[in-house]
Amino acid sequence: MKTTLCFLFLQLISSLCSGELQPELNNDISPLGKELTDHTRELQETPNQQQTCKEDVNTVLREMSAMLAEQRVEIRQLQKENQGQTAKLESQKTEFEKQKIEFEKQKFEVEKQKIEFEKQKFEVEKQKTEVEKQKTEVEKQKTEVDKLKQQLQGQTAKLESQKIEFEKQKFEFEKQKIEFEKQKTEVEKLKQQLQAELSSLKARTNVTEIHVEELKTDKELKQVAFSASLRVSGAETLGPFNTHTPLVFRHVVTNIGNAYNPNTGFFIAPVRGVYQFDFHVHGPGHASHASGAVLVKNGDQIFTAYEHQASYSVNASNGVKLLLEVGDVVYLKLWVNSRVYDNENHLSTFSGHLLFTM
Ligand SMILES: *[C@@H]1O[C@H](CO)[C@@H](O)[C@H](O)[C@H]1NC(C)=O
Ligand SMILES: *[C@@H]1O[C@H](CO)[C@@H](O)[C@H](O)[C@H]1NC(C)=O
User: What is the pLDDT of residues 120-138, one digit of tens each?
Assistant: First the structure.
């Protein structure tokens, strides 16, 4: 409609330019009608208006009146339509209000839900914070656990190394134990050997002791020596006798081994061996009696010492080495019909000793 009015206005302007403006305008058409009337009045008030345009203007005005009438109809129709649409709009408005209420209701509901959501969100944030806290706690504990794990691993490694060391020492100990057992066996063997040796040594010692005892006895037996003269004191002449008569030498100077008996004049051999015997006979010179003695062994005459002078004195001596058995008896006999003298000077003597055993 605005476009149409503009068009009309432009047409009016062009009409004015050509001097055909018509002053009568229908005042019913307002506000456009009024505007147009105002323009017309201005145009009418212009004193120098060309008379030539008057007819054209009237034509245009007539046309415009027709058009306006036409448009009035149209407007009425439009007004009618407008009323219809207004009613429609009213109903739509009511509908819209209803929907708006509904919307407000829903909006309230949404707000409520939003609050609820915010509440839940806050709750969730709280829980999230809590979870973060717990997560941090868990991380801390994890770190702690890792630390402990590392410590444990370290201790485990240490334990393993100690275990290895222990096993090594155990092995060493077992080795030493075996070695010790071996040495023990060796020692036992040595002990047995030593005991055997000790027994044998003891036996040998026993034997040796016996030998020593024997040797001691033997030595004592071997220590045999004696010397004796006829008279202990005073002077005496023995004989003559018509048979060989045993002589008893009573003055003992030496009698080691006590093999000589000064009461019997017998020497009895204590051991088997070779013995040396010496005898000296001193006698006064006499025409009919000599001085002499014979050494007798078990009744057998062995050697004789004999001398005869008519005056003064005589000295007869002899010696012999004899192998004697144990118990053999050796003594001196005064030679038959002879004489022997002795005094404190010990001139007539009998001596003997063991040279060596056999
Ligand atoms: C040693 O000899 C004695 C006497 O012959 C005997 O009784 C004793 O048992 C002997 N001892 C040993 C250890 O042979
Ligand atoms: C015999 O021995 C004694 C004592 O030694 C001595 O006085 C004497 O003269 C000796 N007789 C002879 C003949 O030598």
Answer: 888 888 888 888 888 888 8
Question: Across the strands, what pairs with 281?
Answer: 316
Helix, strand counts (H, E) of the chain: 3, 13
| Cα–Cα distance for residue pair 58/23, rounded to 1 Å | 8
Single out the residue of 329, 339, 332 nearest to residue 246, CA to CA. 332
Does position 29 have pLDDT exceeding 90, yes or no? no
pLDDT at 26 over 80: no
Please, which residues bridge with residue 357 across strands? 273
C-alpha span between 5 and 34 (Å, rounded): 13
Going 27 to 31 to 33 to 36, the CA torsion angle's sign is: positive
pTM attached to this predicted model: 0.47
Separation of CA 263 and ligand 2 centre (Å): 28
Residue nearest to atom 7 of ligand 1 (CA): 206
Nearest ligand, CA 312: 2
Tell me what pLDDT residue 270 has. Answer: 94
- Amino acid identity at 28: D
